[in-house]
Fold:
Amino acid sequence: MLSIKQMPPEAKVWIYQSNRIFSDLEVKAIEKAGLLFIADWKGHGLSLKAGFDILYKHFIVISVDENQAAAGGCSTDEAVHFIKKLEQHFNLSLLDRMQVAYRKGEEIVVCHLSEFEKLATQKKVNESTIVFNNMVTTKAAFDMEWEVPLKQSWQRRVLA
Structure:
């Protein structure tokens, strides 16, 4: 199993953010499940050169180097199905795109977008607050645009 760090810049990336921190036991179990999923994952009948990472005990990152084989619609559906199984098994929310993750010191805080807007209004988050842009789709974008100051993210609209 590869890591996102080993992927080329053009590799596809999917980021799934948890609504809560994973326990150490959950990290081990999710990594094991991820390894099994990646080992069997195919695109158009060919094995995919894929990576699976758990970052900061909050994010699951799946990546695919499509230079070997492309991840088509069916492959993407399989990944979403795998994520849904993780949600059910561990009582998580991994597909809610209305959740925002940001850094508060060394801690990662996850809240609903409406709550994040209130925090901005109250000046508890500002343009320098580090947020996670889970909408990135390539390794290059992941490296440059995943952890960014609020003023450089899609969430910057809360500053208005």
Remarks:
- The first helix runs from residue 24 to 40.
- The CA atoms of residues 49 and 78 lie 15 Å apart.
